[in-house]
Amino acid sequence: MEHRALKEVKAKSIYTRIMDIDFDPSGVQAVPISPITFPQPVPKEQALIPVVFINQRIFSEMDSLQIRALANKIVPFVSAKIKQAGKEEFNALQLDCDWTQSSRDKFFYLLKYLQELPDLKGIVVSSTLRLHQVKNTVTSGIPPVKKATLMCYNMGNLRQFGNQNSILNQQDLNTYLGGTLRNYPMEMDIALPLFQWFVVFRNNSYIGISKYISEQDINNTNLFTHNPNSNLYILAVDLPKANLKKGDVVRFEKVTQNDLLQTAKFLRGELKGKKHQIIFYHLDQATLANHDNAELQEIIRAF
Predict the structure, then answer these.
(1) If pLDDT is split at 50, 70 and 90, which confidence band does 1 have?
(2) Percent of residues, the chain, with pLDDT higher than 70
(3) What does the pLDDT average to over 70-86?
(4) DSSP state letter for 181
(5) CB 70 within 8 A of CB 21
(6) Quick one: average pLDDT of 51-67?
(7) What is the DSSP string of 248-288?
């Protein structure tokens, strides 16, 4: 199903998370976390763009020598994974980091150093951008790369109890990007969300995102009660398969086609003709079941 979708939308590239980098359990050393394993080759028609997520907290314990050492570990690790995916080479590498004012300079140093490595000669090193980093360039700075990907999702307060949608919110887009995106001095691609999730609260406190609840579950009136004017569902019984208890509240967040079209039209006005590509996040059967090819093409045309 995924292969067919890639072909139908004429996708040129697949952005693939290779690993996270975070502290080991001792809290001292930065190590790969949950690296991907490719059970089968990636389709030959699409280029594979590896993405490495870096938890910005690791930079608090690093000096320049340690940052260079990290860079020299990232490159061979990524290269080995690319070969595991059935590809001989890669033409781009993306680093994903929600850097702050305190971690900015060290993350930017990592970006600069990676671009100086002989093994990455001719390879485009890019960075992700979050909304606050576009709006607050004085404190966030501008990453020293030629290209970035603007992440137009995960923009609300996920952990706050309420019936908001933390995946995509037009008001937040307007607040952070209105009048600022058009002036950002960099070519950028746009990443849009297709995913949905189930955010769980107990006694009005966030306890996590459940992977063991389905849309079928929350629509089961024997399991949940629902206020039709909100996206909150109250569990009527214990639900052992999801380790949830009676009275827990699930906030079902999803992105509609209308949400995505509104976002596309808003961004079109803000980009002012800047060259860009559209990235849909993410690719799996469950996501594609909710967004068919005709809908994806409509979103692309809206730009």
Answers:
(1) low
(2) 100
(3) 97
(4) G
(5) yes
(6) 96
(7) -EEEEE---HHHHHHHHHHHHHHHTT----EEEE--SHHHH
CA gap 62, 48 in Å, rounded: 30
DSSP-based three-state secondary structure for 117: coil
- Using DSSP's 3-state secondary structure scheme, residue 291 falls into coil
Chain position carrying tokens 């909710």: 290
CATH of region 2-195+253-302: 3.20.20.80
pLDDT digits (tens, 9 = 90+) for 193-212: 999 999 999 999 999 999 99
| 95 within 8 A of 52, measured Cβ to Cβ | yes
Peptide bond into 282 cis (omega under 30): yes
Comparing C-alpha atoms, which of 7, 82, 1, 97 is closest to residue 46? 7
Cite the residue boundaries of each domain of the chain with CATH code 3.20.20.80. 2-195+253-302
Task: Share the mean pLDDT of the chain.
Answer: 94
- Which CA distances in Å does 246 have to 109, 201, 219, 242, 302? 49, 11, 16, 12, 43
Backbone angles phi, psi at 186, to 5 degrees: -160, 145
Q: How many CB atoms lie within 10 A of CB 249?
A: 19
